[in-house]
Amino acid sequence: MRTDSSPGTLPAREHLPAGDAGTPVLDVVIPVYNEEKDLQPCVLRLHEHLKRTFPYAFRITIADNASTDTTPRVAARLEERIPEVTSFRLEQKGRGRALRTVWSASDAPILAYMDVDLSTDLNALLPLVAPLISGHSDLAIGSRLARSSRVVRGAKREFISRTYNLILRGSLQARFSDAQCGFKAIRRDVAQVLLPLVEDTGWFFDTEMLVLAERAGLRIHEVPVDWVDDPDSTVHIVKTATDDLKGVWRVGKALATGSLPLDRIARPFGDDPRDRDIKDVPKGLARQLVGFCVVGGLSTLFYLALYSVFRQFSGSQIANALALLVSAIANTAANRRLTFGVRGRGGAVRHQAQGLVVFGIGLALTSGSLAALNAAASNPAHSTELAVLIAANLAATVLRFLLFRAWVFPDRRDDSLSFLSSPSFPSSPSTVTAQGPSSPTYATAATGYDQQFQQFQQYERYQQQPLPQRPMAPRAAYDTSQFRAGDAADSTIWRDATMPLQPVRPHDTDPRDPR
């Protein structure tokens, strides 16, 4: 299944409408553990800042992580004293657990959190949440490592922070600059589908959340911040670093094996020019060309290494044939996954068989070129042979790419209604009605409609389940590549065969669909 064509479960981003004065737009969570001294000054300062500068209704939520001092009593007094403040008590420690619990229960469309020490200057709060309110971005983070950030902290913490982010870039290919800054925000609709995929309940929680969001193609906005280190911080650096490295290994392994269903949180960007049908501009051609060239270069190196190994115990022709065969299988598998984005085991054997046919065509082209040269000239020069081989291999490479794209790995985004264009299927529902229930055409149409409707109902039942309760293993059973966001709008064709069929685009939406 191609993840770039999956409709996902998120609607297109829109600017938040102006709501009632009593409805909070922003919910700022402050996770605390034994912070009886800093909690009240923090909440009072944050509340005063939001009252003075934030143009929407807001809420401040104190998330108590099983504190053992008087922090719960301080939180209760603040809740009684200030209408915009609420408190929430958890009986287990873990910043990630606190954020997941409060964010999952919040009704505010924008969710944020900050550390209780307020190391980050609050003037960055409005720039942090503004792109989420406007619909421009899905998540926003404060960055202490941006060029325009102003940071005051010791050399030890500076070294640890930069080293950690280098590890994320090298191991998980993260492109965001600062994963650990305690100053982040997320849209609630994104959090509802993203948080169930995040396993960590401690300090690695937001790093894992950012990595998954970035891999799913969500937009992350970074805000340079002014940040002053808190010398009284209670964070255990060694333990936190160890847990973070374990988290990096776990997430990296999950991403490498493809066990994370990131297509669930892919967003159908209806206003994205890549989703538009532009004449004479094939979709994804540039990316596929780059991937095909990279795979081709690596395959050539692999072929040469195999030939050197096989040549030690066989003749040149046998070694060449074996090396070409193995490298062709590896080339097809790599292009299947990396160039054309086909995942899962479905159709893998067929793709390999078709890849071998394409390989045979290319081999016949190069061999035929040499045979034609030898027939034209009895003893051609070596430079002439090389020139012919280069030209033939170039033509074979172009032909292989075209066959891969059009035959082996075609774009199957419109396969869900492909039976409508088959010769045995009527060209319009009126044809079905005119021929009557006893006609073969009517029976074919009814069978096709019934099968499609059953599959669609099965997928709808799966989508309606709460995300934490959805089974992870049977992903293939609910193949979203067969259903696009607009399919629900055409569901009436199964109830009324006289309704005309409308063309479906990947970014169409159903006004009756609550998603």
From TrEMBL:
Protein name, as recorded: dolichyl-phosphate beta-glucosyltransferase
InterPro entries attached to this UniProt entry: DPG_synthase, Glyco_trans_2-like, GtrA_DPMS_TM, Nucleotide-diphossugar_trans
TM region(s), chain numbering: 289-310, 355-374, 386-408
EC number of the protein: 2.4.1.117
Domain Glycosyltransferase 2-like, chain residue ranges per copy: 28-192
Entry keyword annotation includes Transmembrane: yes
Gene3D superfamilies documented for this protein: Spore Coat Polysaccharide Biosynthesis Protein SpsA, Chain A
Intracellular or extracellular location(s): Endoplasmic reticulum membrane; Membrane
Membrane topology: Single-pass membrane protein; Multi-pass membrane protein
Top-level enzyme category: transferase
Catalytic reaction list: a di-trans,poly-cis-dolichyl phosphate + UDP-alpha-D-glucose = a di-trans,poly-cis-dolichyl beta-D-glucosyl phosphate + UDP
Region (Disordered): 421-444, 461-515
Record domain GtrA/DPMS transmembrane: where: 292-409
Pfam families: Glycos_transf_2, GtrA_DPMS_TM
UniProtKB keywords: Endoplasmic reticulum, Glycosyltransferase, Membrane, Signal-anchor, Transferase, Transmembrane, Transmembrane helix
Skewed-composition ranges (Low complexity): 421-430
Main location: endoplasmic reticulum
Biased composition (Polar residues): 431-444
